[in-house]
Amino acid sequence: MWQGWEVETWDRSLREWYQRHGRALPWRKTTDPYAIWVSEIMLQQTQVKTVIPYYYRWLERFPDIPTLANSPLQLVLKQWEGLGYYARARNLHRAAQKVVEDYQGVFPDRFSDVLSLPGIGRTTAGGILSAAFNQPISILDGNVKRVLARLVGLKTPPKKAINQLWELSDRLLDRDHPREYNQALMDLGATICTPKQPSCLLCPWRDFCYAFQSNLQTQIPMREPSTPLPHKQIGVAVIWNDQGEVLIDRRLEEGLLGGLWEFPGGKIEANETIPDCIKREIKEELGISIEVGDHLITLNHAYTHFRVTLNVYHCRYLAGEPQPIECEEIRWVKPEQLSQFPFPKANTKIIDAILNQFNSIV
DNA sequence: AAGTCGTGGAC
DNA sequence: TGTCCAAGACT
């Protein structure tokens, strides 16, 4: 069915649709490759609506590549705080330094150079180069995968057909209008060809779409098999010293929430009470002894691959010199200073609870 | 090559 | 309340 149509026909109808119904997004008002790069990184696995305020604040604080490259990582992470997937911020920072080193601070315009920057894969490289320089490079993000899977009636989960999807994306690319085409295809996926209840009657490709013609649009793309999420119980310590300061630690640079600050703690073992867990973890990780006091708050938080319940207790520092055994760094800080440090979301809720108690007592 | 890596919105 | 999933990259 769909083989009978010429690619040029699809491209023309998509472009006409885009000119009427495309989204007005902040990063479409510029061709500055740096600004577009920032937007592409922030948009990875993150909704447009979430990104927009971060995007504006970022460009205000880091208006160009040298400014970003010369800023301390802690400030960079503070600007990223709340966006998640913090490796994106660390990679963006490293990549900025590489652009300064290797390209005199000018963002490269060659695909292989862009692709070699940390945090930039094939889709992001194509997105940047097509948007900033109108280069004819295809993309394959979540939107495009879904659109193409429905278009051809893909009978497997997209992950299993990634090579075919790239081929198709390449073949369909409008080489005369690559910037418009890529943006249009993503908008189509985001606003018409949505995961649930797609608006097929409004779609410029409805006549060519296998899924719509077969009424399979709610079954394609096929779902990836999902695995159950483990749930961990965590004991967390808000440790106070006699100066009215609390102890925080900076997590290791790599891995989950790398480089962010947190209140120390750890997993509750089988048949272990929460106070016992907290005392043990603090001894193991920081080498100090504490007394566990009042319960502060209990929080549930969902990550991508597991869930946690944080059981947070006020604690009193007793003895020993804190040492960064399983973290990068340790500090005693006054509660009002906590806002200066980048924390993961679950920990900002703990901070709110501390400040609320603090203010209601004082 | 399957697992890892955050958070919020939508339903 | 749970589930899906959003402009993916890296290991």
From TrEMBL:
Pfam families attached to this UniProt entry: HhH-GPD (PF00730), NUDIX_4 (PF14815)
Co-factor requirement: [4Fe-4S] cluster; Mg(2+)
Binding site for 8-oxo-dGTP: 251, 262-265, 347
UniProt superkingdom: Bacteria
Nudix hydrolase domain sequence ranges: 229-358
Cited InterPro entries: A/G_AdeGlyc_MutY, DNA_glycosylase, Endonuclease-III-like_CS2, HhH-GPD_domain, HhH_base_excis_C, MIG/MutY, Mutator_MutT, MutY_C
Keywords in alphabetical order: 4Fe-4S, DNA damage, DNA repair, Glycosidase, Hydrolase, Iron, Iron-sulfur, Magnesium, Metal-binding
Broad EC category: hydrolase
EC number: 3.2.2.31
Membership in a protein family: Belongs to the Nth/MutY family.
Protein name: Adenine DNA glycosylase
Organism annotation: Dactylococcopsis salina (strain PCC 8305) (Myxobactron salinum)
